[in-house]
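Sequence in, structure out. Go.
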Amino acid sequence: YPWERQRYPLDGSAVAMPAAAPPEESAAAADFRRRLDAVPVAERGELLVELARREVLRVLRLEPARQLDRRVGLVVLGFDSLTGLELRNRLERELGLAPATLPATLIFDCPTLEELAGHLEARIFGMEREAPPAAPVAAREAAVAAAESRAIAAVAGLGEAEMEALLLKRLEEI
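Output:
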């Protein structure tokens, strides 16, 4: 934008601004990127999940040894928009990315460590990561929900006496 290249003081004289230098990649960021490039494609996600976990713990000021479930939402862990920006900035620095490469809404767009790692991998390598396999818990929850809806449909057609008899039978089974 033109106003970024010149200052416009109140007296009307314009002063040229020096061009901003591109950010220099830190040695740690360069080392991490080399490690990321050296591992097989299938293992990149794990490295990025570990980086994201480490930075989440730093932003939230939690013990570094603490384990985090990769499927738990970052907002549930205590993130808000301000800490989300801090995480974004740390990840950009650790990965050697230019400032504002990642969106300001990163924690809302990628609410878990797993999704965050997938987004980082896509940004760095220009590819989409495969969706993780559905967790057994999710399959079990879906089966329970289906069974509940069948039970509700079956009970909806019963009269009061039939419902009471069914409840007594169930209580005896317990």
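Check: Residues 128-134 have pLDDT under 50 and may be disordered. The two ends are 73 Å apart (CA to CA).
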